[in-house]
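Pair request: fold both.
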Amino acid sequence: MPLIVAGLAIGAPAAANSTATTDAATALASLRPRAERGDAEAQYRLGRLYYYDAPGVPRDYRLAFRWFRLAALQGHAGAQYKLGGMYFSGRGVAADDRQAVVWWSKAAAQFQPESLNNLGALFANGRGVARDPLMAYALQTLAHAHGEENAAANLRAKRARMDAAAIAAAEALAAELSRPGVLARRLTAPGDELAPATK
């Protein structure tokens, strides 16, 4: 099975996809000039090339972090999601749950499904943010509504630990958060500071 990196099929047989680029190094050479000119999508895809160990482009979390950050600062939801994950895991940057919350919040405000789910997990566990089971449930409800498959299992587990009144309150919160602009306002806290670019 071919590896999909930066929207390109790496290692796909030519017969399977004649337009697929089979060399990640070629993709790197193609994306870098656009990324250096400030193209957020190219920066995001370049970050993905460095994040995943693609043939011809060795994994480099610090470079991945650099390119994701540049795209994230321009509002690219996918890059904000990846940046949050790097802060959460400590890949390419010092682990920092609060910064994971900041970046996943920015992506979640754009209804990026994985960020909604992950942010819900942080609220559920009080990591980087005050523990809030209702917000956790509401965010994962939105994640599920936007196609995040893992959110369904998370919601089942939460339902098993919540009473009917708490579930109803969390579902009402999810409905409120789904209204235009409400989620972004709720997730934008005064004093959110962006962390330095590298370790």
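--- second member of the pair ---
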Amino acid sequence: MAVQPAAASPEAAIDAQEARFTAALANRDVPSLERLVAESFTWQHPEGRVDSREAFLAGVVHGVAHEGRHDLRQEYGPSLALNGASATRTARVRLRDRAGTHETWLREDHAFTRTAGGEWRLASARNAILYEGAPLSDSLHSRYGGSFAVEPGRVLRLVWSGGILVATFPDGSSRQVFLVSPTEEAVRDPQAGHLRFTLSDDGRPATVALVRNGQEIWRATRSQPEMMSGTSAR
């Protein structure tokens, strides 16, 4: 009796479908996309507009998705939440053009559903823009890890890990940091504020301030050396 090959785990099967979807999107391969997305599929644009399956497929040939308009794609920190016959895959994605003139970072949330035949199909896709603009420097971001004391018991922590610089604020909230210069974080939400640095002689941050609507909210001084780890883009 022939031994049947073991079925792929949900994680492996969804990763494979995600890779097929990404390739088909980049190649504007509508027939492949038709096989990969569910009949009820929806595509939510970063600005909030939602396309039906039909509208999404019609728009693919025109490069409606960010992935279809960039040459280089890297994925960071993918995670998967399984719940029976449904699953949500979340990742940060970095998109760049080969000319080196533009860069976009997205948070991708892709929901999958398992058919009666056991195949995973994409049920919805939602993208949020985290950064869009001039290319960013990995070597610059990698120098900014460390702990910065606002006051006793209140600390800002910056960690360079897996190719991403993440700030954890004194209140426990966290976000990815995008440096548009050695002293300035990109402003994404003026109400939330952005980080402004002063540098020591070695080019590493000595102090960091939270600036909101042009007003300095607090200032912190480096108290521990940098924290960093290796890169894990996919």
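Observation on the second member. The helical segments are 10-26, 30-36, 53-60, 138-141.
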